[in-house]
Amino acid sequence: MSTNDYVYSFLSAAVEVPAYLGLWPAITYLGRRVTLAMLLLLTGTCVSVVTLFLILQDEVPAELKVFFSLSGKMAITASLQLVWVFTGELFSTNHRTRIVGEASMIARVGSMMVPYINDLLGRVYPWAPGAMLSVAVIIAAGLVFLLPETANRKLTQNENEEFTEPETSNLRPTQNEYEKVTEEEISLSVI
């Protein structure tokens, strides 16, 4: 890995490709909740390690700093993409668009605050912004387990409905489940 600014910028953009491509099999086999928690824990760990490297400064090779910063970027890129999917699946159709929009607005406010936290707090304690972010991300990873799993569940249409349990223990739907849904749809359309 290189510490050249141009190569680092290229690598920073290139890590998004495996982040997006690796997300689909992960949510298919592990589910949304476990995948999101793992990605947030990986992000928090990478940010913590980079913050520790900031404290140690000269004692750590630059390539190691680049590796952990790009690994954290890849994990947070995948988790952000998953948050859009997961948020939409958690709420009923009647409220889905409004809630996703509100979550997006709150995220934008948070992203506007980060440069100020980094500049103002980073002048006093250079390690503090990274420590704050890693703690927040690790707490978020734990809070994800309070949410219901939405993989292989029918989306709710109104707030009175609840998630139904998946019919199989495996998160990936089997061919029989697809055939069953098709047979039910056919019998409903005939009636």
Description:
The protein has 191 residues and is mostly helical. It has a single domain, classed as MFS general substrate transporter like domains (Growth Hormone, Chain: A), CATH 1.20.1250.20. Helices cover 73% and strands 0% of the residues. It is built from seven helices and no strands. The protein has helices at 5-14, 16-29, 32-56, 62-90, 96-124, 128-143, 175-190. Helix 3 (32-56) runs antiparallel to helix 4 (62-90) and helix 3 runs antiparallel to helix 6. The longest helix is centred in the middle third of the chain and has 29 residues, at 62-90. The chain is globular, with a radius of gyration of 21 Å. The mean pLDDT is 83. This is Organic cation transporter protein. Residues 156-176 are annotated as: Disordered. It comes from Scylla paramamosain (Mud crab).
